[in-house]
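Dear colleagues,

As part of the handover before I leave the project, I'm documenting each prediction I ran so the next person doesn't have to rerun anything. This entry is a single chain, and its sequence is reproduced below.
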Amino acid sequence: MSGRLKSLLVAAFSVLFLSIGVPVLAQHEGHEQNHEQHGAEQGTGHEKGAEATTLEPSKVIIEHVMDSHDFHFFTYHDFHATIPLPVIIYSPQRGLDVFMSSKFQHGHEAYKGYRLAEGENIVAVQADGITIDESVKVYDFSMTKNVVQMIIALIILVWVMTSIAKRYSKGEGVISAPTGMQNLIEPVITFVRDEVAKPNLGPKKYFKYLPYLLTVFFFILINNLFGLLPGFANVTGNMAFTLVLGVISFIVIIFSSNSHYWGHILWPPGVPLPIKFILIPVELMGVFTKPFALIVRLFANMIAGHIIILSFVCLIFIFGAMNTALGWGTSPFFILLAVFIYLIEVLVAFIQAFIFANLTAVFIGQAFEGSHDDVDHHEDAVIL
């Protein structure tokens, strides 16, 4: 239901932005004509003021969902509430440089022969601080917002799990009722074990893969929830992050496969010979489309919610630029819609972590059982 709602909202906003863009563009062209009539000098000053107040929704949205070299919370006039992060750059021509990202002055200044370009990329510049020096090769190993947030999520995950494990080793929650953090985490672990691992991997092999499934589930969940906080990074909405998780799952799937699994792919039994030459490439392609589905599903779902929320906020300023009364009048409606989508995103954060772990378990089960139909569900049912 949330997926259909998002698709409907994206379609509606596409039409809405197209309908708004025409009068805004016409209004902008009208202003430019008036500026030309008032003279070149006066027009130039007015155009600079117009550029300063013109909102570019696509640029604002992209800046919020992409990676950066600092944690930016808000801006008030010339004050920027940010937490700068370390910049680590190596160049064969200039050597190693380490400094804080605040030296760039939010992209307005160059430092030590480097500056921030479009897309938060660090480039080498010449002595004037503006012209890009193409002869200098730059290797960026900086601690960006996504990297720092993943480290924080990893620390939280290890701390929570080890603290709970110590309490269980002392008998708390075993000979007595679980308390505190155990009460919160134990039902989730039990859910992943009983609803993800056992049904898809069987009662004999689920315990072998349960640590990996739990790690993936909680790591994605923690990063999903962090991404909903203002100023934090949307790590799971980054294709590089989901790509690494998908590749790891792909490696686990491949190493879990057996000869029966590859026999069904490379020479499908019970299929006429001419059909095999069509079916074999399809089956081989399916080996790679499974992790690709994991990568794209998580990335698309997590970035879509952020884009929709930011679109609602941008619409307030777009309507306000057209008419002040219209902007104030529609702002409560758009704020309510943004809050509504935000609440849905909290639910989606849990759902996407579950789906990634569940599909990974399904693909692993198919790998060592040969096919989905061969999974021994009846044995699991008898034991239960």
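The first strand starts at residue 70 and ends at 76. Residues 8-53, 371-384 have pLDDT under 50 and may be disordered.

All the best with the project,
I.
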